[in-house]
Structures are given as C-alpha cells and as structure tokens.
C-alpha cells in the first residue's frame, strides 16, 4: 500500500470543516459520515486547527460546566506535553555526544 494516495484538501476547506464541527457541536464521527472524510483525518484537523484564534473564536459552550471541562482537558494536554519536553530535555542533557 502506498502512502499519500488519499485526497488532498486545501487549508481553507479544513478550517471551515473544523469550524462547522465546533459551531454545531457535532461529533467528528457524524461529520465524517456526512462528508465522506476519514474520522482520523478529521480528528487531526480539529487538533491542528481547533486552537487557531479564528477557529477558536467560534467555539460555543452549552454550559459553564462544558467550558470548564474543555479547559481542564486543555490543561491536562499541556501538562502532558510539558512533561514529555522535560523528559526529552533531561535525556539529551545526559547523553554523551
């Protein structure tokens, strides 16, 4: 199986699709069925474009609890990334060159 034989979508289409998912609070799997785009591809787009200011501005929360939950998830993700970077820093600081 060759890699890279899938469809190519332009950046605008990707951002608009992510906006659609966030504005309508739709599950990625549902949008994947509607558009015929692979679910994993859409999850990647949401991860990549969901934090950009023009896309993030459209996110709506149904309640303060939903917003809190989203912020807590974002905090956990950032803390995890920070831990990975710390471990990498220690690894490279110790390794002989």
UniProtKB/TrEMBL annotation:
Residues 61-88 form a coiled coil. Signal peptide: none annotated. Pfam families: HTH_Tnp_1. It comes from the Bacteria. Keywords: Coiled coil. Transmembrane segments: none annotated. This is Transposase. It comes from Cytobacillus citreus.
């Amino acid at each position: 199986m060759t890699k890279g034989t899938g469809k190519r979508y332009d950046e605008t289409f990707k951002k608009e699709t992510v906006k659609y998912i966030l504005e309508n609070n739709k599950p990625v799997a549902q949008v994947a069925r509607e558009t015929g785009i692979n679910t994993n591809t859409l999850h990647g787009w949401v991860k990549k474009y969901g934090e950009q200011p023009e896309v993030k501005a459209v996110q709506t929360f149904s309640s303060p609890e939903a917003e809190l939950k989203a912020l807590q998830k974002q905090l956990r993700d950032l803390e995890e990334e920070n831990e990975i970077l710390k471990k990498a820093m220690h690894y490279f600081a110790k390794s002989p060159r």
